[in-house]
Amino acid sequence: MPNLEQVDSNPFKIASFLDERGNLSVLEFGEISLQPKRIFWINSVPIGVKRASHFHRKCNQILICTQGSVKIYITNSKLVSREFVLEAGSAFLLQVNNLIQYSFLSAETQLLVLADQAYDSTDVFTIDEWNGDTP
């Protein structure tokens, strides 16, 4: 996966099929350029509390809002920023070297994250640890 150093990726809708038996949502891994090695989810976050606030050097992620909505704040290493709301059934590809912050907009919000790397504490750094060079 290339290091694009940009924030122009857009949220995308996940295919969803609704009938009398309920809703089935599908994300085909052949359609995305990320092969997950770790999956985690975040929920029960108080409304408005900011989470993340860090960069990754090697780990790319897909953020999937499975319920509720979450406000995403993203800034690249050139300090170009963007914010948007990720609604239930939508996802966003977060590439390396982008500062990510998010806050949940409702109590029932759930965020599922697919990561292409196992957790490595040396991969994560905060804006305070950044010296202004490309991370």
UniProtKB/TrEMBL annotation:
GO molecular function: isomerase activity
Domain of life: Bacteria
The Sugar 3,4-ketoisomerase QdtA cupin domain, residue ranges: 13-123
Coiled-coil residue spans: none
Protein's name in the database: Putative dtdp-6-deoxy-3,4-keto-hexulose isomerase
A Pfam family reported for this protein in Swiss-Prot or TrEMBL: FdtA
TM stretches of this protein: none
Keyword annotations from UniProtKB, A to Z: Isomerase
SUPFAM superfamilies per the UniProt record, alphabetical: RmlC-like cupins (SSF51182)
